[in-house]
Amino acid sequence: MAKVCPITKKKSKMRGGYSNRTRATQFNPTGKRRSYPNLQKKRLFIPELNRTISLVLSTKAIKTINKNGAYATLKAAGIV
């Protein structure tokens, strides 16, 4: 599966945190880990083109497609 959403450009990122004990005393990092976006495989039918395409989208992109329509969203992203 793709690691980047073609519409929202969401991708994985490194993140880490500090415990409250660390904040209270000295610098002591708790470590880093990779955070991944919520990507889903989705088949979309585009009536304007009369065809179906399969994409790996973030859930935010799926909500955007439901709101604005598949063709308009994909055209704005430069996919169609």
Task: Please render the helix and strand layout as text.
Layout: E1 13-16, H1 20-24, E2 32-35, E3 39-46, E4 51-58, H2 59-68, H3 70-77
Antiparallel strand pairs: 1-2, 3-4
Can you describe this structure?
It is a single chain. The protein is of the alpha+beta class and 80 residues long. Helix content is 29%, strand content 30%. It has a single domain, classed as Ribosomal protein L28/L24 (Ribosomal Protein L24e, Chain: T, Roll). The model has no long low-confidence stretch (mean pLDDT 88).
Series of secondary-structure elements, N-terminal to C-terminal: EHEEEHH
Largest sheet: 2 strands, antiparallel
The percent range for helix content is: 25-40%
User: What would the CATH topology be?
Assistant: Ribosomal Protein L24e, Chain: T
CATH C-level:
Mainly Beta
Q: Judging by the overall fold, what is the CATH architecture?
A: Roll
Kindly list the characteristics that best describe this protein:
alpha+beta; Ribosomal Protein L24e, Chain: T; two-stranded antiparallel sheet; 4 strands
Question: What is the compact description of this entry?
Answer:
By secondary structure, this protein is an alpha+beta fold.
